[in-house]
Write a structure and sequence with these properties.
With about 290 residues, chain A is an alpha/beta fold. Chain A has a single domain, classed as Glycerol-3-phosphate (1)-acyltransferase (3-Layer(aba) Sandwich). In chain A, about 40% of the residues lie in helices and about 15% in strands. Chain A has twelve helices and ten strands. The longest helix of chain A is centred in the C-terminal third of the chain and has 28 residues. Chain A is globular, with a radius of gyration of 18 Å. Chain A starts with 5 loop residues before the first helix and ends with a helix. With about 300 residues, chain B is an alpha/beta fold. Chain B has a single domain, classed as 3-Layer(aba) Sandwich (Rossmann fold). Chain B has twelve helices and 13 strands. In chain B, strand 4, helix 3 and strand 5 form a beta-alpha-beta unit. In chain B, helix 1 crosses helix 7 and helix 3 packs parallel to helix 5. Chain B is globular. Classes of the chains: A alpha/beta (about 290), B alpha/beta (about 300). At the A-B interface, helix 4, helix 5, strand 5 and helix 6 of A face strand 12 of B.
Amino acid sequence: MHLIDPEVAEKIERLELPFNQYGLDPYGIDKGYLKRFFSFLGFVYNRWLTVDAYGIENVPDRGRAMVVGNHSGGVALDGGMIIASLMLDKAQPRLAQGMAEIFLNSTPFVSTILSRVGQFTGLPEHAVRLLEDDRLLMVFPEGARGTAKLYPARNSLVRFGTGFIRLALQTGTPIVPTAFIGGGEAIPTIANLYRLGKLVGAPYVPVTPWVLPLPRPTTCQIYYGEPMTFEGDGSEEDSVIDSYVEEVKARIGQLIEFGVESRRRDDFSRPIPDGSDAVASIPRADEVVA
Amino acid sequence: MKVLITGVSGRIGRIVARRLLFEGHAILGIDRRPWPDAPKGVQMFSADIRKRPAENVFRTERPDAVIHMATVSHFTSRRAERNRINLGGTRRIFEFSAKYGVEQVVFVGRHTFYGAAADSPLFHTEQEPPMAVSTFPELADLVAADLFAGSALWRYPDMKTCVLRSVYTLGPSRHGTLASFLRGPVVPAVPGFDPLFHFIHEEDAAKGICTALAKRVNGVFNMCGPQPVPLSTLIRVTGRRRLPVPEPFLPRVLGSFGLPRLPKGATSHMKYPVVIDDRAFRAATGFEHDYDEVQTMEAFRWA
């Protein structure tokens, strides 16, 4: 069986990570695992779903950066597809490293796979260390609140955590605002089972019309906006931090709005808005549901 | 300089003694175990570190520096004995050192201090608390010894104290905690988990201890060598076979079928990594390791 796509393998070989002679980096990221993992993600990205990335040149080729995106419900399909796009569609491939839920790290096999492909538990210590090592971090400030969105709320934004801004300020990291469109169509969640989740050790279990939260074939779009930088050292007052968070949220909201509109018109040739007039016009989840 | 080494008959103790001897120091060794072919220049005292004969060595010989590595793990000693040696012994060594004018003490501790759990970060720094007390309760005595040794920093401010938290040592001697775990041809593993293991070549560990002594550092430092590798790689490169045992069956098979005997808490180390950051130690001393992870595993395998 061809578990490894030769094109994917070529991308992995071009990663600028310090691998040792066994293909292991200091964090235990393993080239062999990466090749299999991204061959699978590549299949989902290019064949099962059809995902297109726009503005990917906004993600720097090297050096620390933080890709900050929206969740669109169900499972973290958006995370997987953003990681895939940065590896497969970028001229200089990069490994985006997400911040996984703790329960994933205590789940057999999932724990091993995530550890070997650089998707570590979401701890501030990990985020700071990876950024100081000039890695590419992927953050979803909505957290599990975001993946719990139901279908009608798929293109909304819920409350953002504020930790990512403090991290960015503390480490001098540019933020690449990112929008993922189509996740709600791929995995339309009609309900979240919290009690079942408790039984299996997950926050909740999402249910779709076909029961399992598996994506149906559809098209998705990813928009990467121009990097945003903020001045400070991370020790600012909450009010200052909150205003930065709102700025990033507004920018992501603008990208979502642009993406939804492009999808409605079926016209993906328009240039990505540059963020100069980003306003928080995106509806909040509670408004949509109401 | 006159250097007293406790636990000198251990594998690392011997290497440290030889190194310091070569550097021109006079070596005093205390150990209950013999060191029959100890080189000339190492003055051996057969004593228990908690007893009066050990104090006599301090009183009559007046060492300038002490390297305290007479601590024991679950592989060699029972619980009550461990508590006496690791806690009672460490207390005495620091008391004797302060009383008899020792200028500098290096305590050799362990990186397992930080514990292994699903929510613990990779690359522990010295600031982190000893989570091992909850994840691996059988290590409580070693954790306490480490913290007690650190308390000498404020208890005896005139004395230089260095607490070195070392990763597992590995090498041709085939002695030590990790070597005991890898002893047989088959090594147990928990299916679905493949934690990183962090180790240092025993020569490098000795070099690090000697460096801490030479640089007279004061404080708590992590000490490691090359990057960690997954347990599966460690097992493969050292020529062992990996035996996946579902977690509920582990207590039943450990200690039989040639598998190592491990306390209950050790399961956490077979699921989650304990990996440390030693940047502070390298910055303070300029320490560099000589053996990479491949050479270290090969040295253990082909010894």
